[in-house]
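task queued by scheduler; priority normal; single chain, no ligands, no partner chains; default sampling; output format set to structure tokens
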Amino acid sequence: MNTLVLSMTLMDRSGLWMLGGFAMLGWVLARMTVQRRKRRLQDDRENRETQRRLDSNHSSALPLSDAPVETQRWQVAMFDLQRELKGELDSRIAVTQGLIRQLDQRIARMDELEQK
């Protein structure tokens, strides 16, 4: 009788472990299914957005207006850099022109003094 009770207890424990394993397997499979469905819905949304952009006949005067945000930020940064460099170049040209003007005046002055 003792062996029968012992074997029933072991059988009940193994049955509980098996039931717990099946429950965990079901939970993992359900979670994978939900994640796969979410990913598919997100991909579908992205595909629809891309298709909408491609299908639209909207032509913009602004270059790269329909580009991704990172590309637009890069473009703005390049325009800012261009503006800064152009400002530096313009100021150096102005200084150089001023120096050339002073040099021309001194040459003219030297010519006057030489002729006297």
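post-processing summary
- The radius of gyration is 40 Å.
- The chain has a mean pLDDT of 86.
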